[in-house]
Protein 1
Amino acid sequence: MQQVPLLINGEFIRSQSTHFIEVTNPANNSLIAQAPCATDDELADAVAAAKHAFLSWREVPAPERARVMMSYQQLLKDHHDEIATILSQETGKTLADAKGDVWRGIEVVEQAMNVGSLMMGETAENVARGIDTYSYIQPLGVCLGITPFNFPAMIPLWMFPLAIACGNTFILKPSEQDPLTPMKLAELFMQAGAPKGVLNVIHGGKEQVNKLLAEPEIRAVSFVGSVPVGQHIYKTATDNMKRAQCFAGAKNHSVIMPDANKTQVLNNLVGASVGAAGQRCMAISVAVFVGPAKEWIPELAALIKAVKPGLWDDPNAGFGPLISPQAKQKVLALIQQGKEQGAECLVDGSGFSLPGYEAGNWVGPTVFSNVDESMAIYQQEIFGPVLCCMAVDTLEEAIALVNRNPYGNGTSIFTNSGGAARKYQHEIEVGQVGINVPIPVPLPFFSFTGWKNSFYGDLHAYGKQAIRFYTETKTVTARWFDEEAQAGGTSGKDEP
Ligand code: NAD
């Protein structure tokens, strides 16, 4: 049985732990590998290695650090399909989805290649007579990243390339449910020329995370995962005087105006709701139909019903299984509650199972209509292939509904009215808004800007905000006296 190695101080080592977490194939729950729960000594070694490596890495000029990122980008592109295959096998994602997961991460590495200009400070001459002020952007030190199962390539790549390009060193604690993809990313990062100790990877669960959060040497913590864990990590990290950014759960609404292009709306909603089995923090899980647009719900349900779950290498599969039996149980329980609480189940995927793979974590596409705000399927993040449809009479009602929701990760509006789109983008209390774009994930020269219960912190992931998160600004106020210049014979008076 493959034991997932740790990466400490440039070496891929076999953990001395006696506690393991099983990594399984979600299609049938067969065992793929075992992830060790790193020992206290291994955690301490990772911190010591990162601390030591920081002393020399911070002195490496920005263009040289950028060159490591350039080599890394090339290696990631060369191994794109191989990484996507590992990713598909341990998550169950279709190969097309897995390729997208890797590609969105590569784009962040491309952002990290620009670190030289991103780390330029500001200057102002003569802020007082003969005095100039200028600022430098300097790295923080050792940073920690804790990542979820659902994007095992993209989300680690949101974090360590930018942190390291800024001159920091990094400890990654990837999800214990799919650690093989992040290990491949780490292997390629070492091949790209990263000095030892600059990136370290530790495995385990809550115990390992909590020990790292208590480490005084760790200056900043980036987390992506569920709401309760995000709140716990934000509180613990900040109590321990660390900088923290915690990206959490979501309930994303799409508002459909009756003047929208029906074909575009329906096709977009299918992929945005049940694609990747709904295990995306930007999945559309609530469709809000305004006025007569509600007449489209039966047609949407028929399109979603036609989506077939399947194996990762089946090109006709619309999506794969859920990550674990626990995730499946949670989704099935919510579907059941939806029925009991009076929602109309137009498409019921709770009985679905793939022939030959009955032991897997399968749930078929599911659509509810007549959903209201009191229902569990509306209040909770389902994180499964389940779409809730609601109907309101006006755009104002739709905006009020979305704004009452405690989450604020992403939202979209479908309309042909510039006025309606403008009103929506201005009034909606959600950090990422799509206009006729169902899943508005910003590219890495912007930042990933969830709001409300979808994010705890102030500086967001990637883009300029991540550079600020992973750095300190040092401001210098300088005065040099003319007399000194003249005493040094540099007044220029005698020069031709
Ligand atoms: P999770 O919260 O269960 O786990 C995330 C990480 O935290 C893992 O590395 C895990 O080992 C660690 N962890 C779990 N319990 C812990 C505890 N008690 N103390 C300390 N560490 C702990 O999340 P998940 O199930 O892997 O991922 C799915 C969740 O992530 C969903 O809620 C989804 O919305 C969210 N997510 C959010 C974003 C975003 O950008 N907002 C992106 C992707 C996923």
Protein 2
Amino acid sequence: NTESNSSRGALIVLEGLDRCGKTSQSGRLYKYLDEQGHSVESWRFPDRNTGVGQMISSYLANKSQLDDHAIHLLFSANRWEKRSLMEEKLKSGTTLIVDRYSYSGVAFSSAKGLDIGWCKAPEIGLLAPDLVVYLDISPEKAAERGGYGDERYEQLEFQKKVAGSYLALRDSSWKVIDATLSIEDIEKKLREVVLDCMMTCHKGKALSHLWP
Ligand code: Z5A
């Protein structure tokens, strides 16, 4: 399930509830690492630019309806269509900062009542992150931030269920950062854990696959 590769990039994943600050922090982290001379890219899932991503986007905007299982598989397919490029980038030494990944897939679908084992199955074989950072905020506090838009999952009651699903998914390897701190304080904490992880990968930590 593993292979060794020296001086590769790190796969960094940011997770959390809607409005927890992932987009803001991804942008700042990208800018910082880029300015430090690291090879780095900022990614996000869903990637709405692919054909599958456009189906997902239309579903999230309530412009189309899909069975809960079907949309779950589309989110997963959207990661699979980027898998080989992801591996290529990491092996060539580029660090990827990824806003949402398989954990979002499992957390959001299991919050709808789908079986967690079923939700995890299509993710098996995707690359495992070297670091998962969870930006921790209560659903109530998140809802106060700039208000929710019109997208399908942007509702307090549903976000409460998602928070519960994330709690069930978290393991001790996740770095949890209080997302109610100032943007600057979060940024500082994030940099520390990310630089530490990048160093480990650079020293030859092997790439591995979900679910470890
Ligand atoms: N989904 C799924 O079901 N299955 C899957 O497999 C995947 C996703 C991958 C689309 O995601 C939906 O797809 C998402 C999960 C589901 N649904 N929900 N909910 P998306 O990526 O398009 O949307 P999002 O991830 O929820 O992004 P977002 O709303 O843009 O939130 P964010 O990126 O976490 O936060 P932000 O834009 O950086 O900040 C939000 C606001 O808070 C903004 O006004 C900031 O200025 C403010 N902010 C940020 N940080 C702070 C701090 N520290 N203090 C105060 N205010 C702050």
